Amino acid sequence: MPYKPSKIPSSPYFGSGPCKKHPGWKASDLQSALIGRSHRAPEGIAQIQRLLDLTREILAVPQDYTIAIVPGSGTGAVETALWNFLGSRPVDIFAWDVFGKLWVTDAIEQLSLPTVQTFVENFGRLPDLTQYAGSHDCVFTFNGTSGGVMVPHLDWIPDDRQGLTICDATSSAFVIPINDWHKLDITCFSWQKGFGGEAAHGMIIVSPRAMQHLTQFQPSWPIPRLFRLTKAGEIIQSIFEAKTINTPSMLCVEDAIQGLDWAVSIGGKKALWQRVKCNFDVIDKWVTNHPDLEHLAIVPESRSKASICFNLTAAYCGGENPGDLITQITTQLADLGVAYDIKNHFLAPSSFRIWCGPTIETADLSILTKWIDWSLEKMRPATAFTN
């Protein structure tokens, strides 16, 4: 039995969303937020525009792409994209995690699209992305946190495609660099992952060709007002000019700006990615070399750098239910104030999930591995097989 670690992480927040606030965050720093003021006041519009400008700067978004804040966090952003942009041509949907599979359901059961090709894989595996037909629209998730799998590159998207690509980038924006913006037409994400912002607000980044599509095609279904980007066949330009569809929380806007300012202060996109890679290396090497653990993502090249999912081995479980054992271990660590929310999504296979995003400190992940080692021994079933 290993000794109980004497040191705990400086922060126990290792969940995959909402994620840990950026280093140095303090609630008292939000006193400058425009509380009680209208988001349509000049000061409110200026604050929202600053958030949009910082987003463009850090993500290196091309100047001819437009950016907007939409309701409903990352889910609302993807729904906005599905409801406004799909319907003019067949669509290919690639899914391998919880939310990607929900987009399949929306396309088939809610929008009732006539021609949908689905390429669905089990958790931990990536579909064959080369099956995408460039003449179709395409929906995919860049980084699937519940499957521990990410798209390793965007080379499979043709430059001369006719279709639009809709990318759910909720768990990759500000985490995994996007260097090929010309491959993406509608990119959707929220504030609560990469820089530790608050929930309930989503963002969409729209390419020029997708904006043109909005003026040339009107879906056959009614679009809820919260998702609506056009009116009478015309784009509602104000949405892309720091004037949101509905009222945002200016407290959350200020919090997001401070998170983005932190990202700029450490070196922007490159520095964020460097922190992620260091974090990933700690957990990836630990899991890979651990006798009692195994990665959920089988292929190393597509293994998520931000959200590592892993299982207990069959030998460790010794015939006992792995889900029960994982619950016992994660509950114990949460009760001790060591780690919160490291059990995977309830719709995913029973497994652990550790967020390795840029707001996490590498030293804390190293400490966490020692605590999990200790808990694994403490909870080891009597029936477990040992070498």
UniProtKB/TrEMBL annotation:
Cofactor(s) demanded: pyridoxal 5'-phosphate
Source domain of life: Bacteria
Cross-referenced Gene3D superfamilies: Aspartate Aminotransferase, domain 1, Type I PLP-dependent aspartate aminotransferase-like (Major domain)
EC number: 2.6.1.52
UniProt entry keywords in alphabetical sequence: Amino-acid biosynthesis, Aminotransferase, Cytoplasm, Pyridoxal phosphate, Serine biosynthesis, Transferase
Coiled coil region boundaries: none
Pathway this chain belongs to: Amino-acid biosynthesis; L-serine biosynthesis; L-serine from 3-phospho-D-glycerate: step 2/3
Reactions catalysed, as given in the entry: O-phospho-L-serine + 2-oxoglutarate = 3-phosphooxypyruvate + L-glutamate
Gene Ontology process terms (BP): glycine biosynthetic process, by transamination of glyoxylate; L-serine biosynthetic process
PANTHER family: ALANINE--GLYOXYLATE AMINOTRANSFERASE, AMINOTRANSFERASE CLASS V
Family that this chain belongs to: Belongs to the class-V pyridoxal-phosphate-dependent aminotransferase family. SerC subfamily.
Listed name of the protein: phosphoserine transaminase
